[in-house]
Amino acid sequence: MKCGCLGNSGDESEGEQQSLHKPSDNKLYQQKLRPCCMLVLTTQKVVGLFVLTGLILLPIGITLIVQSSQIFEYNFEYTDCYQSGTTGKMCKDVLSDATECVCKDNTFEIPDTVKGDIKVLYALINFYQNHRLYRRSQSFGQLMGAINESCFKKEYCVDFNKDSDGKFFYPRGAMANSMFTDKFEIYKADDLTKPIDLSMNDISWKTDRDYKFKEPENFQEEMKKYSWPKKWQVWQGTNATPTSVTDEHFINWMNPAAFPTFSKLYARVKLNPGKYVVRISYRILLSSEYLSLSLSFSSQH
User: Fold this and answer.
1) Of 187, 183, 180, which Cα lies nearest the Cα of 105?
2) pTM (2 d.p.)
3) Tens of pLDDT along 132-155?
4) Displacement of CA 115 from its chain's centroid (Å)
């Protein structure tokens, strides 16, 4: 009897221990099987799905094709353009630091389907603006109005820091001193006396104009202590180079391209259907046989 009582007592305590370790019967602790539905792919369902997808994408594709066919684009590579006149020489062969070469006129036609403004863009091929050392060869503080700020890394601006008279460049650095300065003019084919006005306003990001590129206080007085970059001095007064860091061509140039082949907006122009002539003042010295230059017109917005 005693043993039986002891045995019963042990069974009860063991059951109590098991109940203590049993998880609560709720969704957090217990998983319960629910009825589920699995899609069975049949030939009819697969074909129907493809037909439905095609019907949805067909009008989208037609719309894109129609819109792209209405875009006007004209590209002209002028790396090996010949000098205007009878010399028969390429501009890249006669160019020097203090001269420019005017390419032979190139004619293009605007079709009747073009509406709205046309973008004028220049493109460089195999020019590595994204190179780390080139990107750091500038003074971010100087561009934002602190004219005395040094370069991001002083050693990267050694060759583009001072002129021969010991004056510091404004702005300093390799990026500013290698700015693209080629000039483009557009004429009507039947009137080569007066170029068509190009709109060079609002060709850069508004945030850059408002926050990142600012003139210092007392700009004219401060500039007496500084010198424009070497490349800028050659073309001062010819509308080919900026007279301030707020110039929009300069702002576009100082935004580095992610790839070695890139294009940047030069201007906008309103052209009626007809024939036109583009005249290029070739000024950039090609330091590599692999570097190429091109000009393009596009009606894409």
Assistant:
1) 187
2) 0.73
3) 888 888 888 888 888 777 777 777
4) 25
